[in-house]
Amino acid sequence: MNMIQAINSALDICMERDKDIVVLGEDVGYFGGVFKATEHLQKKHGKTRVFDTPITECGIIGVAVGMCTYGLRPVPEIQFADYIYPALDQLVSEAARLRYRSAGEYTAPMTVRSPFGGGIFGGQTHSQSPEAIFTHVAGLKTVIPSNPYDAKGLLIAAIEDNDPVIFFEPKRIYNGPFDGHYGKPVTPWAKHPSSAVPEGYYRIPLGKAATVREGNDVTILCYGTMVHVTAGVVAESGIDAEIIDLRTLVPLDIEAIEASVKKTGRCVIVHEATRTSGFGAELSALVQERCFHSLEAPIERVTGWDTPYPHSLEWAYFPGPVRLGQALKRVMES
Amino acid sequence: MDEDARRNMRPLSLHVPEPRFRPGDAVDFADFDIPDVAAAPRPDIGAMPEEMRSLAYGLVRVLDLDGASGGAWAPRLSPERLVAMLRHMALVRAFDDRMYRVQRQGKTSFYMKCTGEEATSIAAAYALDRDDMCFPSYRQQGLLIARDWSLVDMMCQIYSNRGDRLKGRQMPIMYSAKEASFFSISGNLATQMPQAVGFAMASASRGDTRIAACWCGEGSTAEGDFHSACTFASVYRAPVIINVINNQWAISSFSGFAGAESTTFAARAVGYGIAGLRVDGNDALAVYAATEWAAERARNNFGPTLIEHFTYRAEGHSTSDDPTKYRSAEERSAWPLGDPIARLKQHLIAIGAWDEERHAAMDREVAEEVKAAGKEAEKQGVLGDGLHQPFTTMFEDVFEELPWHLEEQSRQMVEERKAAGI
Ligand SMILES: Cc1ncc(C[n+]2csc(CCOP(=O)(O)OP(=O)(O)O)c2C)c(N)n1
């Protein structure tokens, strides 16, 4: 399965198991979503459980909060993560705080799915990685899969979770892993071990990172598309790096991070989002607080630049193999 | 209420709208009610919104389907002006066709056509003054073309090439042309609507004479920004024209998902106490007349007008879209209000100002004009060939001055590319 099919399968299985689950969003019904993640779901589960919505992201999330209040478990789709901003108030001030402000009387067990990230010539409004904004909000969980197997297991866990979850899908790797080289064709997922996705139910717990590669020289913390860019660079570099795919940013697998950095003594953080106040800043602070005495080199951050995503220059923006390779070299030499 | 009583109540049911025709369905618009051109009265520009409620539910029309014109809204335009309008509409279509093709050839990443909707921006632009400020969505390329903006400039933007004044940063078709009083296009739907109202309020508060106009699709009227725009426009009687292009489809979602089963989009105006007009958007004369009326109203401090342009999106949503996956392929040809270019052409022929030969010659000329502009633009590069802007331009214009962190990142990028030999 590719990542879209894995996500589709997770939605299908959850809807079969739990009649309270509903899928809503722009174009998700008959058409099956602009990326086809919800294909066939309306036909199978009916149009009162899978339906198109008016184009109002604030409305979609607000309505989802109300559905939660009734007892449903909505899985809203925001067509592109760039369009989640109009829904921010409903997410930040409402969904995220419902449990806290009502002392558990009301909750918002919804999973907001949204494709994010660049590398598709989408320009500044179809490329952003806004995950840091959501990790900053108390009460929201943030999940980002990097492969089909994880996408399915994590999405099932997110949908079953009783807290609101932001589930960002790296659209650059919907159809296959990607090594960060512009112009190089994407190899389909079919050739990747993680595409061996079981048809049935399984879950991957939120808050557990995956060690993509074990190593002793440096820990690389990454997620989403960047896991593949990192794996490619490490394979070419000959550096014995440990690659950790965080999978969920909140809750974060701090134990895995701490154990790895204490073992390797070096840390490189990779994400596609802009650098300033990005999630890398949080990771860097955590590593410094908890592993200071084990560090043999300054922590490096490899990120997108602090500019909007520039359409024609996106390959100079994208934190690809060149930027990462040089950071790795620096950290190994210091 | 106790449980027993509840058990005897009828279960509720949820209504989810469905379009009339899906792929493979035969299309029948026989019950489609087209009001007569004489049906819509033309109120005084100072009339109170409540005196013209019926206009928000009817359809302002000037051209009937045989090419004759009539009714209270018929504008008195010279045949020369009508021909000029026709030519601009044909130019938009030729431009779209070529740009669609170059996207398919891999010369650029994306394109969006406005086929079938040409009248909604060309005729509107003819009724506005050249310096009235336009806040467009992504299907109003006709505004620039009607203002005789350089096709080469538009194409350079689409190619993100050396000639792109926007420095290759914006997706194709997201133009910006301050000189043409054309606001920079956002990818986020409906954000331009309150901005237009703000411009109009500013112009009014300064005692200026410029008015503002904005455009969004019927799907986008669901966004909160649209409603904020209407509220401000109403409260401050802003000199603004709020245009809703109802082309029946928002990607795969038919207009019912924006509320069309319950009321019209022009009727949104009623709740806000704004003048509302529903117009045949495939009738260039009706679009012209309605826009001219709304502009006069705004210029005379009678406040905003919301115009719904009732039209049909004849092509896909964008180059990323396949409309045959969600709507009947027959819809386009069966559309009861026809094609705006064909209708204006037919009218001009009916009044003896045009003929098939001249029309065919015009089509050849506009195709040549577009082709020549395309060649010119391609001399400055196409996106498919790679980067055309110096990559450090990426860091410009984030702020007025380059702060230390961007300076540092810019330097880092130069070094990293040098080290990598690129
Ligand atoms: C805030 C926001 N949400 C979603 C989108 C994705 N999107 C782009 S175009 C579109 C449909 C718009 O339909 P409509 O307003 O009717 O205009 P049309 O394309 O039909 O001209 C959608 C959902 C977006 N660009 N911005």
Automatic annotation (TrEMBL), chain B:
<dbReference type="InterPro" id="IPR050771">
    <property type="entry name" value="Alpha-ketoacid_DH_E1_comp"/>
</dbReference>
<dbReference type="InterPro" id="IPR001017">
    <property type="entry name" value="DH_E1"/>
</dbReference>
<dbReference type="InterPro" id="IPR029061">
    <property type="entry name" value="THDP-binding"/>
</dbReference>
<feature type="domain" description="2-oxoisovalerate dehydrogenase E1 alpha subunit N-terminal">
    <location>
        <begin position="11"/>
        <end position="49"/>
    </location>
</feature>
<keyword id="KW-0560">Oxidoreductase</keyword>
<protein>
    <recommendedName>
        <fullName>2-oxoisovalerate dehydrogenase subunit alpha</fullName>
        <ecNumber>1.2.4.4</ecNumber>
    </recommendedName>
</protein>
<dbReference type="Pfam" id="PF00676">
    <property type="entry name" value="E1_dh"/>
</dbReference>
<comment type="function">
    <text>The branched-chain alpha-keto dehydrogenase complex catalyzes the overall conversion of alpha-keto acids to acyl-CoA and CO(2). It contains multiple copies of three enzymatic components: branched-chain alpha-keto acid decarboxylase (E1), lipoamide acyltransferase (E2) and lipoamide dehydrogenase (E3).</text>
</comment>
<comment type="similarity">
    <text>Belongs to the BCKDHA family.</text>
</comment>
<dbReference type="InterPro" id="IPR022593">
    <property type="entry name" value="Oxoisoval_DH_suAlpha_N_dom"/>
</dbReference>
<feature type="domain" description="Dehydrogenase E1 component">
    <location>
        <begin position="87"/>
        <end position="381"/>
    </location>
</feature>
<keyword id="KW-0786">Thiamine pyrophosphate</keyword>
<dbReference type="Pfam" id="PF12573">
    <property type="entry name" value="OxoDH_E1alpha_N"/>
</dbReference>
